[in-house]
Amino acid sequence: MLDIQLLRNDIKSVAARLSSRGFELDTAEFTRLEAERKTIQTLTQELQAKRNASSKQIGIAKSKGEDASAIMAEIAHLGDELKAAETALAALQAPLNALLMSIPNLPHESVAIGKSEEDNVEVSRIGTPRAFDFPVKDHVDLGEKLGLDFETASKIAGARFSLLRGNLAKLHRALAQFMLNTHTDAHQYTEVYVPYLVNAESMRGTGQLPKFEEDLFHVPRTDAEQLYLIPTAEVPVTNMVRGEIVPREQLPLKFVAHTPCFRSEAGAYGRDTRGMIRQHQFDKVELVQLVEPEHSYAALETLTGHAEAILQALGLPYRKMALCTKDMGFSAAKTYDLEVWLPAQNTYREISSCSNFEAFQTRRMQARFRGENGKPELLHSINGSGLAVGRTLVAILENYQQADGSVTIPEVLRPYMGGIDALVPTAS
RNA sequence: GGAGAGGUGGCAGAGUGGUCGAAUGUACCUGACUCGAAAUCAGGCGUAGGUGCAAACCUACCGUGGGUUCAAAUCCCACCCUCUCCGCCA
To answer: Is A350 among the residues known to form the active site?
Structure first.
């Protein structure tokens, strides 16, 4: 959510910055609603003030045993008038608030203006894709004999689910463990274990609601509030500070969580249907930081570096992309995507997305700290995948495959794998 | 699942219809005393919003949402959450 003051004071430049990301702000509508709101709010408050003053007089008169019927007669008509004003005000504030909630974040000034993902800027390219002297297989073909089973998953649940067996499942677990240990030990994040089902308020806090309801899995309950399956650990972790005023000396807050993520992929029919690139359920290790505003862009750089450190330790070639205005998510002010090399697709594919949301999320959730002057100020939130576990597994399979269909296990993962150095295909 | 208790300011805790945005304590800030500190004394100390150049004034908020009333922290209804005991349970 943007600061409404910004819209009141300088809606033209806000609209200009928003149009760079393809969002056309209805400035006429906002200005109209806002002008009406001002009039009606002032009127409402005047009526309330009158009522309060008179009620006080009645109270004083009665406590002295005097007759208050004169004052009471004077404001007898006030009730209906006030009720009408309050109703009118509420009827204005609802659409005003809905409009405000539907406006995406302003892109940071360093973000390239673009029309599509074609305009994203490559910041760096690390590692060299390996030269293969045999025809490369993709992770589906490789996985067939290594324990990757889509048929059974689809029998159990349906399309866009996967099932892992044996050492492949263990490798998946090893990746998550390795990432968690690296972030807690080397990068000083606090590990948290969080709910995978959250309430609507939390979804509003991080920006999934009200606009992206169709992307979420719902869990209706007969005798209780509806819950949602988390699409990313960003939701429960960032909402830890919802409504809190964090003591300044505790900042920055740095959390890491390993959770499954659930996405309906409603708008993705037909895209990435092969393999485990795009699933309804996948695991992710998520990094979240809550920092003072002046440090948030530095924090975005270091957090992105923490995600990169995993790719580097695993020896996976990747590139770092600075997303252009059009390709960024709704809540982000600036985003880096990390894209890992997938030899079978002969391309780089997103494996991590690291964003600075500035105060966009924390304003919605009123997550604050006490600034130098003692006044509460909004925190900035930053998060990023460090990394998506399923896609990392895919990258390992494809980049570390051997001619015989086996897959070498990267050095750093072997301690988590009981010392074995390769996944070996089954005979059949 | 059954029975009960309760949600008030950073914390504790009073307040059952009227000068209550809320006593008191504590924490915190400022000042006085002190060489300094402690103790003591005095003052200050919630959040959001509106009008205004400002000073200031006004409005809302006592778990959430409705309702009754001239007036609600206080009465009524619904919901959410927490705690205790019993039962069940990974």
So the answer is: yes
Q: Show the tokens assigned to A422.
A: 């390769």
For residues A43 and A36, give the distance between their C-alpha atoms in angstroms, rounded to a whole number.
11
Q: How far apart are CA A137 and CA A403, in angstroms?
A: 9
Examine the residue annotation and report whether A263 is marked as an active-site residue of this protein. Answer: yes
Closest residue by C-alpha to C1' distance, nucleotide B47: A376
pTM equals: 0.91
Residues A330, A333: Cα–Cα separation, whole Å? 9
Classify the phi-psi angles of A346: left when phi > 0, otherwise alpha if psi is within -120 to 50, otherwise beta.
Answer: left
Q: Say if residues A61 and A67 touch (Cβ distance below 8 Å).
A: yes
Residue nearest to nucleotide B49 (CA to C1'): A41
Give strand letter and number of the nucleotide nearest A68 (CA to C1'): B70
- Reduced to 3 DSSP states, what percent helix, strand and coil does chain A have, rounded to the nearest 5? 45, 20, 35
pLDDT average per 10 residues of sequence, chain A (428 residues): 86 91 91 89 90 89 80 81 86 85 93 94 96 96 96 94 96 97 97 91 87 88 82 93 82 94 85 90 96 94 98 98 95 97 96 95 85 79 96 97 97 96 88
